[in-house]
Amino acid sequence: MTTAKRDTYTPETLLSVAVRVFNERGYDGTSMEHLSKAAGISKSSIYHHVSGKEELLRRAVSRALDGLFGILDEDHARVGRAADRLEYVVRRMVEVLIAELPYVTLLLRVRGNTGTERWALERRREFDHQVAALLSAAAADGDVRGDVEVRLATRLVFGMINSIVEWYRPDGRGVSEREVADAVVRLVFSGLRRD
Amino acid sequence: MTTAKRDTYTPETLLSVAVRVFNERGYDGTSMEHLSKAAGISKSSIYHHVSGKEELLRRAVSRALDGLFGILDEDHARVGRAADRLEYVVRRMVEVLIAELPYVTLLLRVRGNTGTERWALERRREFDHQVAALLSAAAADGDVRGDVEVRLATRLVFGMINSIVEWYRPDGRGVSEREVADAVVRLVFSGLRRD
């Protein structure tokens, strides 16, 4: 028999439990009962902090989205040649993905069944568009190859970066965040082949 | 009220219905009842063709795996400089992924809850190792950059290729298979930046 923990959660620490459960069971497959069990507090204690699981989802994906959109406001993303700004954004995307791994993982798995999920998908598309615009500008400058269509290139680069959530584990035993970011920047901008 | 269709399925056509349902609901979330409804035939008619849903899964992921491993037996994958063989394999991976889209999609979503899923994961790892070995050989020849660790580079390249299942729709309105394959080969080997 488990005894309920005294509720010492803040909205922030409760969020990290919820995100773990959402990533394990899927958002649709998670009930307030599952969250209550995982947190070790009653459902009414959870309702003391948040209005329900959709609010937890909104807070979680907001954290991932704020991290990603925050990149675009940084100086190196705003000043300089488009190709250099794009390189900076690609590196920072890897860093944010790793720093906010469970939150970005959840964001990438959102499907669109609820209002919050549709809002998150819309925000993701907006971020993609802003990065695609940077790639277009770099192509217009002649710094980026013109023989791969911008939207297709953006999709493939995002595909490479987003796939990191499938295997990266921040346990200190594998490759470091820095090695992953360096590798992505090298492959995306210069490719595998040695000149 | 729906009337049951006369069972005109072959194991092959039944498989394509099953794969669609597995991809929509997830393999774990699919029951024989769901398959029976989607196919419009009774469960006992399905059992006439296959022993159950795990056999359908095995046939489906085998089709994807046979397609992928088949690439490694093709002449251009076996003869020539490692870097050229690698480039050929990358292009063919995109082609097989698109030609067998629902089957490869299912393979990439396999999680490891059943014996068949664990076997599929093991075969995927074996394929990854063979491509990584080709990349190692190309690096040893000096044709491929040495400053990205081989396993990490393999993961990132597979990440880019596998992400195609998330957005590619073979409806003739978007980019063609050829454009996608060209784009992947260009990005993977030469990167975005114009020299």
TrEMBL record, chains A, B:
InterPro entries: Homeodomain-like_sf, HTH-type_TetR-like_transc_reg, HTH_TetR, KstR2_TetR_C, Tet_transcr_reg_TetR-rel_C_sf. Residues 8-68 form the HTH tetR-type domain. Residues 31-50 bind DNA. The keyword Disulfide bond does not apply. This is TetR family transcriptional regulator. Keywords: DNA-binding, Transcription, Transcription regulation. It holds the Pfam family TetR_C_24. The keyword Nucleotide-binding does not apply. GO terms for molecular function: DNA-binding transcription factor activity; transcription cis-regulatory region binding.
